[in-house]
Amino acid sequence: MRVGSNPSKSNYKIEIESTHRVILSVYIPNLEEDYFKDSQLIFKYCIESLLATIHEKTRVSIVINGCCKEIADMIYDYQKKFHLIDQVFYTKENLGKINAIYSIVKSNLEPLLTISDADVMFLPNWQKEVETVFVDFPEAGMVSPVPSSKGFLFSTASTLYYGLFKGKIKFQKVKDPEGLINFQTSVGSNLYQKIHLEKYLVISNGLKEAVVGCGHFVATFRKEVFEFAPTKVCQFRVQMGSEVSYLDDPNDFSGHLRLATLGNYAYHLGNSPQAWMEERLNEIKAGTNNIEALAIPESKPLKKWQFKTGTFLSRLLFSKFRRQYFRYLGVNEPY
């Protein structure tokens, strides 16, 4: 039997002060296997660099996604110490990266959502630089603090349309080639040729510039992008196109641009700690973090027909006639 009236009925509208949420899905099932033996230290670099570089209007959600007790206890300890970690979700079994992320995406109201792997080191000013891109390009829906010379290849039909018809698209000298080299090293693969370390594809609106495309190991999204995502539960833990279907394509389908900052403001660490990581973390924590949240303008997505036109043109210019088109843009080497 209920007595009285629920106070929520007279104060039913949800209002929040935060403007930016960071979502970390953590899967570290044990600390014995070679692949995971150093994951606790790597995650330490991740969470502590994040907490040292975000503004007060940020909130952090962490999903304990099938983690061992040591990692779960570690995360709860961080939550007790840092007020910006306002959500910790626990699941005994590994639900997969996408399902873990979407449990947060669908239940929060912040206009910007940063989705990151748990092996990322956040560098000073990453948040300011990312939010600045959203201010400079209201059409943007996905922005990474880590530029990639090959980012133009994936889910960028809307971005290409914008570059061709509403702004300008060009090649430009890579600002931080060491960032590209770091990512290449962290994944243990030769991703980039010499030309990729020298030039990347950039769009301009006449006043500001950003790199075309980005990866999805760390990226910030407008919340409305996810209205274009699949409604079914993802059937895969990782890979099998899950991140493309649930993260990359919804941004493109919604008519938003996929961009990255000109400079490199985060490192992908992989699973093997290096001496420089501890040194860099100490520098980050010793620095002054006095950034303020920026006012993000309402989005200005492209229309559906513009996305379709961009899809057709991207197949021509980025695939079939890429060499000719890039030569027209001033790059004569295979890219």
TrEMBL record:
InterPro entries from the UniProt entry: Glyco_trans_2-like (IPR001173), Nucleotide-diphossugar_trans (IPR029044)
Pfam family, one: Glycos_transf_2
Boundaries of every Glycosyltransferase 2-like domain copy: 40-144
Superkingdom classification of source: Bacteria
Name of this chain's protein: Glycosyltransferase family 2 protein
Organism: Algoriphagus pacificus
